[in-house]
Structure formats: structure tokens, C-alpha cells
Amino acid sequence: MLVLYETAAGFALFKLVDDGKMEKPENIWKDFQTAEQANKTVKLKAFQKFENTTDALSAVTGIVEGKLPKNLKKFLETEISDKEMKKESLIICDPKLGSAVNKKLGINVVSDSTVMDLYRGIREQLESLITGLSHSDINAMSLGLSHSLSRYKLKFSPDKVDTMIVQAIALLDDLDKELNIYAMRVKEWYGWHFPEMARIIVDNLAYAKVVKLMGFRTNAQDMDLSTVLPEELEKELKDAAEISMGTEISQDDIENIHELCDQVISITEYRTQLYEYLKNRMNAIAPNLTMLVGELVGARLIAHAGSLMNLAKQPASTIQILGAEKALFRALKTKHDTPKYGLIYHASLIGQAGPKLKGKIARMVATKASISVRVDALGDTDTPDIGLAGRTKIESRLRQLEGRAGAQINKDKSGGKKQEAFQFNKSTAYSSKSDTVMTEASTEKKEKKEKKEKKRKADDVEEEEEEEETVVEVKKEKKEKKRKTEDDEEKKEKKKSKKDKKDADEESSSKKDKKKKKSKSD
């Protein structure tokens, strides 16, 4: 029996000296306790060394996927003769590789659980069985091949790490909140001393820098603020400082305000640096998505989904309302209209659209964004071609919907002749060519139209007659019903009168009988 053993250095083909030992595989480990016993049990028949790491990686990836590599097939065909192919059996550890070898070469393959102890013994005594391979060489080759194989499996790229984007956008939002709080505190604190300054200088960074440079408002006239403010604002600030209604503060107060201004300036500078970092990282990881919706919106979509791959798995409808989950579930619960957009609303393309077109443009942006994200996550190219094409298409569609100059105009493709310019004809004679003659076709058309009009009028007359008949029938039915009700009432009255008359007769007869009886008794 032959044994195929795969190493990080190459393929080794061993010959099992005694085939009967495979009948009791549980005892085969005893034959590999020492190097001498191992050499007596198996003999090295051939060894094919890998030329480089690329060759080793292609061979190992083929084995992992259950395919027979070309170099292994060539090695087995050269080292195993046709007679051995028919007589011998080949022991292979991997069942998938064994079935592939059996299909391609037709050799009998043994790849079950009974061969595991044999492979463990060969692995322990590999240095003695294959000469020229040291333990350190095998370890180095195994480490390099494992790294290459892992990189191939994961398709890992240091530039594709989206964790940096998730952390950066979260930190950017935190910095914005903190910066807003600190800047408002500076304005409220310094506003006691110079309240007019908050109205003149709106920018937080410029406000903090001016406070840091000027200190007390009395120093405004002697201070050069041209490095921070434009000339108009500087003049307005100095004029306001002279007539300010603010209260006086101490040196200790201004020192603490300066410390807070330093915090505002440093946080603002770090935020600018962080934004540049996020912009560069987004262009490296998701160039198409960045081109379509921008750095901040793209980063927020990735952070909300968890990763770039998770976002790529989402359909366009989910990307459209990503970030509006609360509104969505509230709308579903109350059976109201669902939201049209979530985080994607802040994209510049949707901002350009009018209020009535925002939903339609949001749907288009989400569709193109889903395509762009899948290209960024699963594609090999780093160019923003897909995102650029999608952006131009949406912009042209937006112009078309809003009726701008870029809308498509349906041109006349008939190629008709241009109308000739008017020329004044001095001749006063009447031209018979300008008369229009009624053709047979036109007369036929007129006759058909007249027939249709007559028919339509006849139909209208019939409909009116039918309506009149229905009205007359309805009136007759009402009259009959009224007559019946009157007859019924008369019958009831006659019956009632007869009954009353009968009762009166009975009463009178009973009175007469009583009188007769009374007279007899007397």
C-alpha cells in the first residue's frame, strides 16, 4: 500500500512495508515509537518539493476545496506506474481529496478513520523519514503557508478594516457634543464681562481665540485681532468694547476662562484632524459609497449596520430607512405611513431635491448605495467608478424631474423640411392652385361622421324615452300603492262601524229584556 502525506514543504509518497499492519490500526502506533521502527514500517518512495510559497498556496487551497492540484496529479502519475495503479491502494487522509484522486486517476483510495493513527506516526517521525528537512525548516514553512492560507481565506487587507470607521464616527459625534457644551459655557461665562461679543462673533473657534488673545475687554483697542477676525468684525468688536454693558471680572476669572478656551481650541483642532482621517479611511475602504453619499453619511451607515459586510448584505429598502427604526415600528404599530428615509436623508443628493421629490430621490440613492457598498465590500477595484456613475445618473434624473435645463427634450426625428420664408408676390391675379378640392376620401369621412352623429342622437333619444318610461312606471307604482292603502283603510273603517253597530244593537236588546223581566215581576 502507498501513503500520500502532505507537508508544508511538499508532497511525500511512502510505501507501507507490511500491508497486514493496516488490519489492526489500533496497534500501529507502536511501530512509530522510534525513528528506526518508523523507517522499518514505511519507506520514502518520492518527494516533490514546492518551488515557492505561491506554488504551495495554490496546491493547499486546491486540497482544502476538495480538488486535485495539477502538480499533485503530475507527481502521482510519474511516481506510480500503471501496474501499481491497478494493484496498489493509496492511503489519503482527506476524504474529499481521496474521491478526487479516485475519479481522475482511477486508483483504489483508502481514506477512512483507520488511517489516522498511521498519519500521526508519520507526523511524529517526519524528520527521520524525509532527509534534508529539519524541524525548524518545517515550522517556518508551516507558519508562512498558514498565514498565506488564512489571508487567502479571509481576503484580508489592512486598508479594509472598517472598525476604524465605526470608532472614528462615534468619536466625532462625541467631540461635536462636547465641543458644543464647552463653547456655550465659554460664551455664558465671558458674556458677563462682554455680552455684545456673542452677537458679533458667531463661530465658536474664533470666539475662543479672541477671548484668549484679548483677555479683558479694555484691551480690545490696543490688541491686533487681524489674525483671527476680518477687518469689519474687528472694527465692530472694538467699537462695542467701548460701550459694553458687561460687569467687571477678576484676574482669577479670566485665567479660568482662558483654560476653557484652550480646551475648545484643542478639541476643535483634533476634530478637524479626525475628520481628515475619517475622510481618507472612507476613500480607502468604501470609495463608491463615499462618492455617492459623502464621508459622514457613509460612515454613519457602516457604523449603524456594524460593518461594511453587514451593510452590503442589506437590501436597498433597509438602507433607505436605516436609522429610523423607531419611527418605522411606531408607524407599523399605529398603522400610519412608514418613514421614507433615515440616515440617508443627510446626503447632499437628497438635500438638493424639493420636498415632494425627497422620497423618490431617497429611494434612488438607496438603490445606488446598495450596489456601491457591495462593490466596495466584495470587489477588487479601489476606484469610485460605480459611485460616480450612480451619482451622475441621480443628478440627471433630479434635473429631469424638476424640469431644469438638463432635462431630456424629445426631438423631432421625422426630418421634415423647414418652412420656407415668406415672399411677397406682386401679381394681383387670382391663383386657383391655392384652392382646396374635396376628395372622395374626405366626403366619405364626412358621411361616416354624419352617420355616427345620427346614430348617437338616436341612441340618446332612445335613452331619454327609456328614462321617461321608467319614470312613468315608477309613478304608476306609487299611485297603485297609495290606492291600495286607501282601500285597506276604508275596509277597516267599514268593519269597525259594523262592529260598533252590532254592539249597540246587542246593548239595546239586553236593556229591553231587562225591562220586560222587571214588568213581569211587578
TrEMBL record:
Write down the species.
Umbelopsis vinacea
Q: Which GO terms describe its molecular function?
A: snoRNA binding
PANTHER family xref list: NUCLEOLAR PROTEIN 5 NUCLEOLAR PROTEIN NOP5 NOP58, NUCLEOLAR PROTEIN 58
- Biased composition (Basic residues) is annotated at 512-522
Q: Give GO cellular component annotations, separated by semicolons.
A: box C/D methylation guide snoRNP complex; small-subunit processome
Q: Which region ranges are annotated with the description Disordered?
A: 405-522
What single Pfam family name could you report for this chain, choosing any that match? Nop
* Compositionally biased intervals (Polar residues): 422-439
Composition bias of kind Basic and acidic residues appears in 410-420, 500-511
- Sorted alphabetically, which SUPFAM superfamilies does this protein's record hold? Nop domain (SSF89124)
Keyword Nucleus: yes or no?
A: yes
The entry sums up its family as follows: Belongs to the NOP5/NOP56 family.
Can you tell me where the transmembrane regions are? none
* Residues covered by the Nop domain: 285-403
Indicate what this protein is called per its UniProt record: Nucleolar protein 58
This chain's function reads: Required for pre-18S rRNA processing. May bind microtubules.
Record's compositionally biased regions (Acidic residues): 460-471
Compartments reported by the entry: Nucleus, Nucleolus
